[in-house]
Amino acid sequence: MWRRLLGRQKSNEPTTGQYDESYYLASQWQLMWRKFRRHRLAMVSLVVILFLYSLALFAEFYSINDHHRRHVKYAKAPPHTLYFVDEDGKFHLVPFIYDLKQELDLDTLQRNYTEDRSKRFHLRFFVEGEPYKLLGLLESNIHLVGVDQPAVFFPFGTDDLGRDLFSRTMYAARISLSIGVFGVVISFVLGCLIGGISGYFGGTVDLIIQRVIEFIISIPHIPLWIALAAALPAEWSSTQVYFGITIVLATVGWTTLARAVRGKLLELREADFVMAARISNMGDFDIIVKHLLPSFASFLIVVLSLSVPGMILAETALSFLRIGIQPPAVSWGVLLQDAQNIRSLSQSPWLLIPGLFVIVTVLAFNFLGDGLRDAADPYKQ
After folding, report:
1. Cβ neighbours around 247 below 10 Å, total
2. Predicted pLDDT at 106
3. Which domains, ranges and CATH numbers included, belong to the chain?
């Protein structure tokens, strides 16, 4: 049985005779793409990541309600349930919801919601709703899904102020996902430059840079993030805090990449193509940027993909501790602030839904990084 299984697995791998001429003429990036496509989990993760970033980019279109609007009648309302079959057993091709009716429990003073079966509302696609500017440029009021007025639709329920959690999660994705990318870009530039200088020149420069890196790495990251975030001025606007938190995260995140780049440059700085560049009187900075760094670009891409989830988790942690992004701006960490105590979770467990988006995003980036790492390995077929 094991031989049959192993035999099937081996049959999926192309043998030397199965490679066509295009394989031997393919570039390094084409070979990486061929190997990456065989990693199914990484391909699925890539689709998930692209979908999440589309939600963040077009949050106004995907959202159902204004993410700042308070629906006082529906404070802490549970998520609506979609139905295809009504009470008479009739099947509906388009799903529908029932209106929610609020009742106050006089013993516990809690709001209890029940479905009003006399009021049924079908879902509509591409409906008119709150006006917005798509990407800050195109004025529109068309939303992907909604229900007819005067009904409201809450796929993820509402928070304690009656704000639509689904719409807030869409807008929060914009900050949480973008701060991961921008933070990684800044740390990528710092890590490549500082690590490149350390590995290329060596000597005293390398010694000083490595001691600084070791000092930064020795400091626990969360207390350091808290200290740097707390140093941001309290009067800053939400936009200023956003860029400040991005810089705070990038200030610490470049050290690991710098050490990896240093190790690669120590290995390649005596290579023949580097010696040829020196003989042609090319400057040291140009040799690092134009020759050494591109020579292991595939490795840098893998490091980038694996660094993004760390940035997202760091922002979520800081915002959850109320020292990161501050309301009225919303991020996944800000939304999770409402789920900090057991009482809130017992009454409104749907407040943890933004945490599921964090988990899915982190897992998707990790699986994508695994696939890129396998594809960039020249010794792995």
Report:
1. 14
2. 66
3. 64-163 (no CATH), 169-376 (1.10.3720.10)
